[in-house]
Amino acid sequence: MRVRILVVIALVCGIAIAGCSRAPEPVPLPAPTSDGTPDTPTEAEAIAEDTNTLLEACDSKAGDVWEHMDTISTTRDMDIVRSLLDEPVLNYLGKSYGTAIGTTYAELFPQRVGRMVLDGVLPVTASQEEVTFGQAVSFEASVKHFAADCVDSGECPFAGSAREVEQALRSFLAGLDDSPLPTSGDRELTE
């Protein structure tokens, strides 16, 4: 029995990063200097600057390939790979943004879909702002459920009501910006 595996890695913001590796010259990715969990407008601006730096690096090096770094082009590329592997159908596991690629593939090539698992489906028609807002609402609900469960368990490391547990957890996480915790590796645990 022969097994063939087609792996497609797609990140929400990874189209440009993956595309840079296909550029005529490899693009050294600038190290981000921003805080990944901004608490102030200044920190949010730093993330925007890092993002623009990455986009400019890709744009300057990728040439004409840049125009083909999108979901539909990625989907068509996957079908080309499927064909080159002489596979009659595409079996696919897509997570997060990969679900948009899988959905698009099924729309463009329904007769070529084999087994398809889409985990953490993103709505294809939603804007990035809508997706981000929806995630924030869900994360907030998860924190509330965690706090209530923590109190109900009788083994919660935070004292008080569910609301007090939420506040203690937020204070703990916010404190990690100023006082990161050591880990067994080279990185520190921050917010």
Structure description:
With 191 residues, the chain is mainly alpha-helical. The protein is built from six helices and four strands. The N terminus is likely disordered.
Shape verdict: extended
Strand content: 5-15%
Mean pLDDT equals 80
Strand order of the largest sheet: 1-2
In sequence order, what are the helices and strands, one letter per element? HHHEHEHHEE
**Rg over C-alpha atoms, rounded to the nearest angstrom:** 21 Å
SSE-based structural type:
mainly alpha
**Discrete helix count:** 6
Parts with pLDDT < 50 across at least 5 consecutive residues: 1-23
Q: Report, as a whole number of angstroms, the end-to-end distance.
A: 48 Å
Query: How many beta-strand runs?
Result: 4
The biggest sheet, with number of strands, parallel, antiparallel or mixed sense and barrel status, is: 2 strands, parallel
How much helical structure, as a percent, in the residues? Answer: 40-55%
